[in-house]
Amino acid sequence: MTGTEPSALGPGLVDVTLNGRIRDRPPAAFEAVWERWAEGRPAAPNQWAALPEDLRSEWLWLTEKTTGPDRQGGVFHLDGRHVTGAYGLHCALGEAVNGPGGYYGRCWHSLADCLDGGFGLVPPFTLVWHDFDVAGRSFADDLLEGKPYAEAVVERLRHWGITADLR
Fold first, then answer.
1. Considering only CA atoms, which of 101, 46, 35, 109 is closest in space to residue 68?
2. pLDDT digits (tens), the chain, 167 positions
3. For the whole model, what pTM was predicted?
4. Dist. CA 12–CA 155, nearest whole Å
5. What fold is seen in the domain 40-166?
6. What is stated as this protein's family in its record (predicted)?
7. Could you tell me the residue ranges of all domains in the chain?
8. Among 30, 82, 85, which residue's Cα sits nearest to residue 61?
């Protein structure tokens, strides 16, 4: 550490200079996400829904430590009304299986990690995806393995033994 200075993020905060470089400051917009988490994990669903896609990504970073012990079976409902991009899909999926502010992957690769265990729910289980058509319309051009991202996720879930009921 070679120096400190008051932070632009607020009183009582300090930016630290390491080896002559000031660490990149996060965008000020991230503060809105952090403030929602300041008093702990959200208690109500869809608190991420009003965020733009880049802030949904930040939301997902905060959810990573919100899983409980692995369990199996059951029926879980994904509220698809706000699934308008890949990060929204992962926000909604985490909430469906691990409650408000829950985590179940933040991208294609971390979803596979979750399905393998250690993130609160392992297959088999049933996922009822309400308003699946919103994802189909919203990011149909976001392709993964030649398929729209939402369809590729459904295919992956089914491959792992999850019953995906699209409504």
1. 101
2. 777 888 877 888 888 776 655 556 667 778 888 888 988 999 999 999 999 998 999 999 999 988 889 999 999 999 999 999 999 999 999 999 999 999 999 999 999 999 999 999 999 999 999 999 999 899 888 899 899 999 999 999 999 999 999 99
3. 0.84
4. 48
5. Barnase; Chain D (3.30.370)
6. Belongs to the barstar family.
7. 1-34, 40-166
8. 30
